[in-house]
Write a structure and sequence with these properties.
Layout (H helix, E strand, L loop, with lengths): L3 H26 L8 H15 L4 H5 L8 E5 L5 H9 L2 E6 L2 H10 L6 E5 L13 E6 L9 H14 E11 L20 H10 L2 E7 L6 E7 L1
Helix pairs in contact: 1-5, 2-4
Length: 225
């Protein structure tokens, strides 16, 4: 059981994201509009895949066939990206701290037998069966997590589940002028380039590429050593 302040943050993340999901899940997942249809919402997930995955298949697949690959997703929300990942890869295992989001993501992938969605405790991947995953992905999730300890724990957990050489491609908040508090679950802790490199080293990754340091969308390519 985590220490009390951390336990409070985890409970707050779950409660706040459950409330956001009940109010307007798709808006809080992607604030581009308050009025997503099924079609536009899932098309935006396919666009994320087109921009972040299909442009980067050499690093991601490393010669493997996507349909033979096992992939992790952290913070699946309402299944926007999960569905697109499951259209491309053989197996997708996705977690989210919010049961309300998980219910929506589960419906989003109900016709995709390779997709599996789990509610987790907001800080580890113990709900995921197996290991030797080929790729892990997370977008617009860590930018909302107000605890450095939680983010680093996820990075360590992904390292535990990836096969050596595999890539964890993810986005963190890179604007270090942002002030955060542990009870605000909208603004996540920022990372400088040096913070990101040090975290990779502590968690068993080579931080081979970084893009967008200093910006909201700070992308990291961590390769498991
Ligand atoms: C803005 S949404 C993005 C969802 C999805 N990645 C996408 O791009 O469509 C952020 C998601 O992260 C989840 N989340 C926030 N804190 C989390 C945590 N500590 N562990 C797991 N999921 C978390 C929220 O419940 C929410 O579903």
């Amino acid at each position: 059981m985590p220490e009390l302040p951390l336990q409070n943050t985890l409970e707050k993340m779950r409660a706040d994201w459950d409330a956001r999901a009940r109010e307007n899940a798709r808006y809080y997942v992607n604030t581009a509009t308050e009025e997503w249809t099924d079609e536009t919402f899932f098309a935006s997930g396919e666009r994320t895949i087109a921009e972040e995955i299909l442009t980067d298949m050499t690093n991601i697949c490393q010669g493997r066939e996507p349909k033979q690959m096992k992939v992790l997703e952290i913070g699946c929300g309402a299944g926007r990206v999960t569905r697109a990942l499951a259209n491309l890869f053989g197996e997708v295992h996705a977690v989210d701290v919010s049961g309300e989001m998980v219910a929506r993501a589960t419906r989003a992938v109900e016709n995709l037998p390779g997709a599996h969605v789990y509610q987790n405790n907001g800080m580890d991947l113990s709900v995921i069966p197996g290991d030797n995953f080929d790729f892990a992905f997370s977008t617009i999730v860590f930018q909302h997590i107000p605890s450095r300890e939680v983010i680093e724990n996820y990075v360590r957990e992904v390292s535990r589940l990836l096969r050596p050489g595999a890539l964890f491609k993810f986005q963190v908040q890179g604007d270090t002028s942002i002030k955060t508090t542990e009870d605000d679950t909208w603004l996540g802790v920022p990372f400088s380039d040096a913070d990101a490199v040090a975290m990779a080293e502590r968690c068993g990754f080579e931080p081979r590429y970084r893009h967008g340091a200093g910006e909201q969308y700070f992308w990291l390519w961590f390769f498991k050593k």
